[in-house]
Amino acid sequence: MVLLNCLLSGGSAFAQERTILGKVIAPDGGGLLGVTIQEKGAQNFTTTDAGGNYALTLKSQSPVLVFSFIGYTTQEVAVGKDNRINISLVPTNAQLNEVIVTALGIKKEVKKIGYAVQELKGEEITKARDVNPVQGLEGKIAGLSVGANAEMLTRPQVVMRGNTDILFVVDGVPINSDTWNISPDDVESYSVLKGPNAAALYGFRGQNGAIVITTKRGSKDKKGWEINVNNSAMVEDTWLTVPKSQTEYGRGTNYLYQYAQKGSYTYAPHGTNGNGTYGGVDVLYDNSQRLQEYGPRFEGQLIKQYDGPYDPTTGVRTPTPWTARGANNFDKFMEIGLLNTVNVSAATSGTNSDIRMSYSHTFQKGRNPNTRLNVDNFNLNAGYNFTPRLRLEGNANINVQYSPNIPDASYGPNSYTYMFRVYGSSDYDINDLKNIYKGPQGVPDLTQYAPEYGRENSAWFMAERWMRTHNKLDIYSYLKLSYKLTNDINLAIRSQVTTWDQLRTEQVPSSANLNTYLSWYYFGWYGDYREDHRNLLENNTDFLATYNKKVSDWTIGANVGASSRAFSYKSSWATTKGLSQPGIYILSNTQNGATFTWDSKMQVYSGYYSVDIGYKNFFTLSTTGRVDNLSTLPSGSNTFFYPSVSASTVLSDYIDMPSAISFLKVRASFADVKGALTSSSIGTAYSLATNGYVGPQTLGNYLGYGTEDVTSYDGPTYYNQNGYSITSYYNGGTSVNYSTNLADPALKPYDVQSTEGGLDIRFLKNRLGLDATYFRTVNGPNIFQNTLPSSTGYYSENANGLTTLKTGWELTLSGSPFRNPHGFSWDILANWSTFRETLKSIYGGLSTISLNGHNYKVGERLDAYYSTKFVRDGSGNIVYGTGTNAPLVAPGQSDLSNRGLIGYLNPDFAFGINNRFSYKNFSISFQFDGRIGGKIYDRVLYQGNNGGTSIESASGAYGAARRAEWNSTNQGQNAPVAAYVAPGVVIASGTPHYTNDQIDNLKSLTFANNTTATTVQTYLSSGLGSNVDEYYFIDRSFVKLREVNLTYNFRLKPGSTLKGLSVSLIGRNLLYFAKRKDFDIDQYPAGYNNSNFSANGTYPDLQSATSRRFGANLNVSF
């Protein structure tokens, strides 16, 4: 028996170790190189050689071989008695057979779609994530740009084909999104519908395209609960972009400074009255000076300073050494930032039901002290099949945002960028101010301790006392009942609610320094308190009937539906305009408070259809139509129809292609979508009440400091309604003003006609694919405000009057040049896009028009920017005014039509390249993206030159002249001798004549070198800064190493409790390539906003410095 058992065991072992030989054959009869042959259920595999041959020694008793190769259908073959297995693999167009979510949540096969749409899996942005989930899409979708924003809770600018009003849709239903109310861990996929051709079924809301989000549902394997935990932790420690400041000169003007009451300038020897004098009066609070940083050079000389010994009895302040003790103030003050996100989800599905629950918590600790953000998100998806035909499903998403303090980076006295980099001096140590009420200047809870009280605030005082809170509850949900009437007909009714409620408060402490131009501000005031409360409620209810039928060689898919949209918005904004008692932050504690309210409502009724007809594999023809009736336009013009048509055909299905081409599809589409008077975002009730409508937001008397919060809206603008507003006071009482814009009862919706063509081609047995799209869009006549003579009693009238033409290209390269699931693989996704938009015609046959400070010309690009330029001679030399050393300014440049072309604001093109390399269980992916070309105004450089803090103002020719001027003062004993002579020429003889901004009679003039000197301060802050914008427009190009992700996927044993385990090392915003790095150009994805005919980033505001992020991600499933 023992011998028999041994023989049987030996025989079994011999059977298990037999070797199978064979060949894998391609459709053309040749062998396939690189096909993977794996013994199913075992870590035993091999690959074919150049002839398609293989050999594999088996390990199991009942082996099954799995043959897999990219671009071909995977096949399984059970091993019998034969030791040789030859097999032919069949090519597959799996990527083109995939189903993608389109408008209204309708699923379609990719190969049958006739317009541009691109899908991204949600898992692609959950590792090296951004705190804002939408910013994770940057660089991954051709034609879509997202302005990566470092500001906490600021909505990034999302631009698609140059348009900024992009619709967000979740599970087929539009939502109102600030882009912070979406948890990326709950997203199954993003489908980006590019332009009106793809999003026409959404009506005027989809005229610029849509981002359609499909959320995750119950587990697919129906084997009980699936639990997933994903944790991402990242730190911010080093700067990617940050303004740099000179530390050679301190605060002051004309090389003079002392902490004193402002008076007449007098240069005096040391020991007489310090470094010069301002009237010779020492004071406790230096609140009359708003100084630049053109003061004395740091050489250790004795100067009266804020922290010098002060005798309250005699009122005399003792001078102390003048040194750059605060050269590193910015880095000393800023802290290490932290971003941590935890998501826990549980999902299951059964025969009749499915459910998924998810909770996410995001915590961000800002780099500014005492700033943090908490975002909690709960998502529930559930469905139940009452019968095989009747199903009920729903989704609820609850998002809660809270921050005790949101930093404000905009130009002003409560901005850290402003106080450290624009007007920040190095003559004080920031850590000396940690005791915010240190005496003798500081008085607890009343007066801050600060280096000066005219322009800036103590940064520590702001961090601890100037609080800007944020509280927001955001909910979107839907309930859907569907019934399968027949095998071909499905009926569904759905009702959705999106609502949010936001309260922002601002506690401005006693002694906070504001801009002194505010008529109601005075030194020593008790501070202010503000409340900004906003509430939005929207309901969308729709019915959709779906029909799908295959008749012989024909396929028919049809959808018919109707919907109702009810929109309501309410807001209030209130200020104390000065507290009566310090430190009590309630609206009733007011000296002269004011409250403003603003409400809006809108109703839209719609009907729509879509029909898809296909014949064999030859073509698919699709058409859609939608009718909207909305309340924002005059009766008779408020009902309109949107048609669209598209066609696609897979040529490779019926035409023989070269061997290199595996697949070729061509498509074309046309859409005609209307637009109405709506806006995607909204400002404060104060601005709305004083403007009378949703329009350009301006800082009025009450909004005299800080940034106006702009939130998502997508509601009516009331441009075309004459109304009353409270804007001023008369004889001590409130006055009511009538609108200065004349409404037009015959105003019509504007028209957007878009034509699109494209192809999808796959090469090398589907290893690489190229998707190309060309689009042409005619937009108009757009609604704009035409200027009226003042004699009419109005300033403007609404009119249909501007028509534009936009053309562009989008390219996407994707594929897997190398694919071996057990070895080395390489996946690539590359995107490239460009567009141009020109002015086609103007109302009344005009050739030019000026709107919103921008000059437009028929035939010219809309992003062409005209402004003040250098006047030059025939050799390109800059012409200066005789005896002024200031650039010559052509007369009449206050008129926009007389200004010169600075350049084009939009990038020439945008791109993104994402590579993923994997070997066995390791993978590394990284993404470079950027925008090339275009112009943008460098406000940091302008303000830094004006304030004397920029590196440029103290280096090169400026630095040499500044040093010479300082030396000429003998450390403040004498007035400086001007030393800077700008390179260029002056007009020696003749009288110039100008066309636009340039001299047109150069031959009748003679020129001589400029020899006039001025001080650097005069040249940079007065001559250059106020006269020539050209100097401060820089190249908009940049490239970023956006993200890096190194991942190890653990190989788990069969039957293990764990279903998945991976660990990743991640980095984000790691490298930045640009000509200047004093601000992040990435924040401004487009230079022109065609929704309101205005330039973007022409004079961009100050921004927080951008940081690099490093961290790790852990993902566990069980």
UniProtKB/TrEMBL annotation:
InterPro entries: Beta-barrel_TonB_sf, CarboxyPept-like_regulatory, Plug_dom, Plug_dom_sf, TonB-dep_OMP_SusC/RagA, TonB-dep_rcpt-like. The keyword Transmembrane applies. The keyword Transport applies. Its main location: membrane. Gene3D superfamilies: Carboxypeptidase-like, regulatory domain (2.60.40.1120), TonB-dependent receptor, beta-barrel domain (2.40.170.20), TonB-dependent receptor, plug domain (2.170.130.10). It is found in: Cell outer membrane. Residues 111-209 form the TonB-dependent receptor plug domain. One of its GO terms (cellular component) is cell outer membrane. Keywords: Cell outer membrane, Membrane, Transmembrane, Transmembrane beta strand, Transport. It is a multi-pass membrane protein. Belongs to the TonB-dependent receptor family. This is SusC/RagA family TonB-linked outer membrane protein.
